[in-house]
Amino acid sequence: MTDLYLIYKNMTRKPLRLFLTCFAIFIAFLLYGAVTALKGALDSGVEMSADDRLVVVNRINFTNPLPISYVQKIRSVEGVEKVTFQNWFGGYYQDPKQQVVTFAAEPESYLDVYPELLVEPEQRQNWLRDRQGLLVGKAIAEQFGWKVGDKIPLNSNIFSHKDGGQTWDFNISGIYTGEDEQMDTRSAVFHYQYFRETNSWNTDSVGWIGLTTKDPALNEQVAKRIDEMFANSSAETDTSTEKAFNKAFIEQIGNIGLIIFGVVFMAFFTILVLVGNTMALAVRERTGEIAVLKTLGFNASRIFRMVLAESMLVTLLGGLAGLGTAYLLIEGAKAAMARFLPGLVMTPEIAVQAVGYMLALGLITGLLPAFKAMRLNLATAFARG
Amino acid sequence: MASETLYDLKAISKKFTRGKETITIFESLDLQIKKGDFVAIMGPSGSGKTTLLNMLGGVDQPSGGEILFDGKRVDNLGEGDLARWRANNIGFIFQFYNLMPMLNAARNVELPLLLTKLNKKQRNQFVETALTLVGLADRAKHMPGEMSGGQQQRVAIARAIVSDPKLILCDEPTGDLDRTTADEILEMLQILNRDHGKTIVMVTHDPRAAKYAGRTLHLDKGAFVEREAEIV
Amino acid sequence: MGSLLSQISAVVAMNIRSLPKRLWMSLAMVIASAVVVAILLAFLAMARGFEATLEGAGSDNVAIFTRSGSASEINSTVTREQVNLVGDAPGVLKEGNTPQVSAELYVILDGIKKSSQTEANLPLRGLDVTGVGMRKGFEIQQGRMFTPGTNEMVVGAGVASQFEGFSVGSELRFGKNVWTVVGIFGTGGNVFESEAWADAKVIQSLYNRGSSYQTIRARIESSASIDAIRDYIAQDPRLNLDVETEASFFAEQGKQLRYMAFFGLFISVVMALGALAGALNTMYTSVAERTGEIATLRALGFSNLSAFAGTLAEAMLLAAAGGLLGALAAFLLFDGMSASTLGGSFTQVVFSFELSTDLVARGMVMALVIGLLSGLFPAWRASRIPVVAAFRANG
Q1: Are residues C393 and B98, on separate chains, in Cβ contact within 8 Å?
Q2: Which C-chain residues 180-239 have CB contacts (< 8 A) with chain A?
Q3: A198 and A340 inside one domain
Q4: Tens-digit pLDDT profile for chain C (395 aa)?
Q5: For residue B167, pLDDT beyond 70
Q6: Looking at beta carbons, which residues of chain A come within 8 Å of C67?
Q7: Per the domain annotation, does A60 fall within a domain?
Q8: CB contact under 8 A, C339 and A254
Q9: pLDDT above 80 (res A258)
Q10: Are C277 and C231 in a shared domain?
Q11: C352 reaches A (C-beta below 8 A)
């Protein structure tokens, strides 16, 4: 027998209570893990976006187009390094419900400005050469079972084809992967030139312009220069870092997200308080036994450690099980959710944070009773008995 | 050897405050207990006999005076030293046995050995010896809840002697037992005293129990009223 | 029987009087129940708010036409020719010779949200008097209607409350265009209050839309007319349009918001399980602490039913108190709270949490269920405490 055995026996003396306590902690951390991962996925678009890239959009709103002539003008702005542009295509595959995030872009500059898109050199060449080539992300390629060489039609819910209908034919010329697991690989990119020549509006406009600067320190200056250049024109621009742009977009989901997460975290902490209270009271019931141990000659610090270790163990037991279940849940949901929430993973940061909360819970709930047990006055403890 | 003094209490006083009142339990108490004694302390409730026992066991501290154990002062030891001293020298037996309900008999007996440097094998040997001595070797795996009061008290005795202390302190050891069982327990204490040389101090209100002791002290209103009523 | 009842009431009264002595335990139980109820009510109030905003918007007597496959107003385009053809469709009502058709435009502007001071998509709808007349419950709350042919706009009450700078009389600049807000309108709290409205012809010229529009709304006899209209569209190759009633169009749009409410509901149920475990624990401990007390009563001749009822009543009372507390908290925190999120057409939908009495009643039922579940098993245990426990030492 060791102290650990004693702790274990103390813990398991009332299995029902242990189960209920662990279950409450389990639920708390299950929710914490799952909801934080979910929140992380929602925020990952912002986290993943580059701080050193700028986005130029129409000042009215990013859904309004910019003249294509702006691209050349921006290329000549001092401090600008690489420039590319793209147009929202509003694509879907077979059924309007199967949306495919599709852009018409200038291929070469697109890959220059977005180097985090990893394409094998051969496929890259393929795509640059083929006017009808489509570069697709790994996630959608897997979703629809597309392989390099496949010929597939995509529809647009915005544009019409010159030959009638809204269907465009593409050759899958490459599949890109992300540098990072959380990266969104659900988009498809094709040649702007092909789009321009085949859509019925024959527009000379682009959706937005992406660019890198020679030095991130120049960002603010460059942004200002661009916006000043087009001030008072028929299409004024609004230039911001990609991160700021994405953040603004995510924020449009609005306080709803904030409210939901706020409520969940409030509940998380309340459960912890409740559980802590029960655990602390459970130790009080054992005053007599602790007094006996002390009488036998167990010293105060040893008893302190034992009581503290017990609450730590209970929290870790329930908490790790909850976190583990959240992990399995997330892993299981990952494939199914990949279409909606690509960045859904339980990151080590979330796990570390959760374990931190567990330790804090164990410490806080254990500390006071452990301290009381340590300071227990034997004479009064027995007098009570 | 038998005449050597184990305990020497000099001018012990003990006061409690309850609300605004100060209650004096002992004004100035002197007591000597020799090694190998079997002392019974009797007295009506409120006479201070449990307080005295607590002070002997280092569970409670006197308000004044000195307690010498084996020639060394123990009333002024810090809590850690006191705990170590208790572990090394004293075995406790309580009225309500105070076994750990979630540990079986053998584990309960083993508890004090966790405070020693003995290894697992040695500990198991000691436990077996102690349980055999109290006649419960076959109940080693039983939980306290599965045993009668007498059996539980025997487990408690085994726990008190397992680390081979010089002294055993008993607080109403038969208070919760029927007469036959009480006699068994008292006989066992007597054997421990006579054959194993343990010094025993027992608080009791049962005159029959006191008969097993070599020396009976009557405590009333904080003073010994009738000293050394020797019974052979 | 009378004596049994009086026994029970005596025990219940005794348990309740002794609650303050078990303060922390009682408080834990109350809080557990309060949190579950508050969370449940928050999500129910949110769902109720969505419903009122989106599903209340659509009429069964209005058909909405969009370019086929476009799925939302923002992606759709229709031509002047199509607008005229729709006017001749069967089932579309006419006043005199004029078909009740509203051709509308839908442009997205950047507005600044008051709450976060960030830019958010704000829809500007271009329409005419016929279109305005199709919105149920439309009323000008402040100022006046825009004058056709001018850069004047009226904004919904939701826009005025959630976005900066939309008070009557203020001038707003979007790109090169300057607009004057001349009025604030209400449509009974539904989604149209999240929009700004201006003359369709003015928007066509300011945003280079030529003679094209984005959606067509038409008054129809009843929702049954939709099928006939669909046949009419199918036969004319010039009409590559989707049509549905406005009611079902908005119901579809509201779906993703409803998912969020479902998600919330799911979370509150899971959370309730955790809180229930905590509450059960509390009640078991409460019974364990009162073992001596209960056994003593039994020794005095009280029945085990009274021990059972006493414990159950204690749990129910604490849970109900928690329920009330939770409902109150939800009411103070959430009722009427204005929230906004991204709707189906890529624009902000403003809605408010609605905590009605029937929702509060649902919350209280939840609290009582928690009380019942967390009281039942401990009460059973209390009723099984043997009388001898009274004589056992409690040391």
Answers
A1: no
A2: 207
A3: no
A4: 457 777 788 888 877 877 777 787 788 889 888 988 988 888 888 888 877 777 777 888 899 998 877 767 877 888 888 899 998 888 888 888 889 999 999 888 888 888 778 778 888 999 998 999 898 889 999 999 999 999 999 999 988 988 888 999 999 887 778 899 999 999 887 888 889 999 999 988 888 778 889 899 999 988 888 999 999 988 888 888 889 898 888 877 777 666 767 777 787 788 888 888 888 888 888 888 788 788 877 777 788 888 888 889 889 999 999 999 999 998 988 887 777 776 666 667 777 788 888 999 999 998 999 999 999 999 998 888 887 776 654 43
A5: yes
A6: 157
A7: no
A8: yes
A9: no
A10: no
A11: no
One domain for residues C353 and C308: yes
* Domain match, A30 and A147 both: no
Q: Which of A166, A233, A271 sits opposite C274 (nearest CB)?
A: A271
Same domain membership, residue C383 and residue C266: yes
- Say if the Cβ atoms of A21 and C281 lie within 8 Å: yes
- HSE-up (13 A, CA, CB side) for residue A207: 16
Distance between CA A332 and CA C214 in Å, rounded?
41
Yes or no: say if C278 and A273 are a contact pair by the CB < 8 Å rule: no
- Is C48 contained in some domain? yes
Which of A347, A346, A343 lies closest to A139 in space, CA to CA? A343
Asked if C93 and C124 sit in the same domain, the reply is yes
Contact predicate C48/C295, CB 8 Å: no
Whether the CA torsion A329, A331, A332, A338 is positive or negative: it is positive
Cβ of A1 within 8 Å of Cβ of B92? The answer is no
Decide which of A234, A267, A288 is a domain's last residue: A234
pTM of the model: 0.74
Other C-beta atoms lying within 10 Å of the C-beta of residue A201: 12
Chains in contact with A via at least 3 Cβ–Cβ pairs below 8 Å? B, C
Please state, in angstroms and rounded to a whole number, the distance separating the CA atoms of residues B224 and B232: 21
Which residues in chain B are closer than 8 Å to A2, comparing Cβ atoms? 114
C394 touching B, CB under 8 A? Answer: no
Q: Which of A61, A87, A361 to mutate to test the interface with C (most CBs of C within 10 A)?
A: A61
The rounded percent of chain B whose pLDDT value lies above 90 is 41
Q: Which of B15, B74, B94 to mutate to test the interface with A (most CBs of A within 10 A)?
A: B94
Name the interface residues of B facing A (CB cutoff 8 Å).
Answer: 50-51, 54, 57, 59-60, 79-80, 83-88, 90, 92, 94, 96, 98, 100-103, 107, 110-112, 114-115, 123, 159
Q: Identify any residues that bridge with A91 across adjacent strands, giving them in sequence order.
A: A100, A156
Q: CB distance C395–B176 less than 8 Å? A: no
Spell out which residues of chain A touch residue B79, defining contact as CB-CB under 8 Å: 299-300
Dist CA C245 CA C228 (whole Å): 13
Is B60 part of the contact surface with chain C (CB cutoff 8 Å)?
no
Domain coverage including residue A270: 3-46+254-384
- In DSSP notation, B118-148 reads --HHHHHHHHHHHHHHTT-GGGTT--GGGS-
CB pairs under 8 A between A and C: 169
In chain C, which residues have their Cβ closer than 8 Å to the Cβ of A277? Answer: 24-25, 27-28
Pairwise CB contact (< 8 Å): A295 & B92: yes
Q: Please check whether residues C287 and C161 belong to one and the same domain.
A: no
Range of the domain at C312: 2-55+255-391
> What does DSSP say about strands B90-93 and B21-34: parallel, antiparallel, or unpaired?
unpaired
Mean of the pLDDT values across residues A234-257?
Answer: 75
Interchain CB distance below 8 Å, C69 and A235:
no
CA distance A66 to C303: 84
In A, minimum Cα distance to C72 occurs at A157
Separation of CA A275 from chain center: 29
What is the distance in angstroms between the Cα of C182 and the nearest Cα belonging to chain A? 21
Residues C172-201 pLDDT 10s = 887 778 899 999 999 887 888 889 999 999
- Chain C residues close to B176, C-beta within 8 Å: 393
Predicted ipTM > 0.95: no
Distances (CA, A) of A251 to A41, A185, A237, A243, C121: 14, 22, 21, 12, 11
Residue of higher predicted confidence among A73 and A283: A73
Question: Which pLDDT belongs to residue B18?
Answer: 77
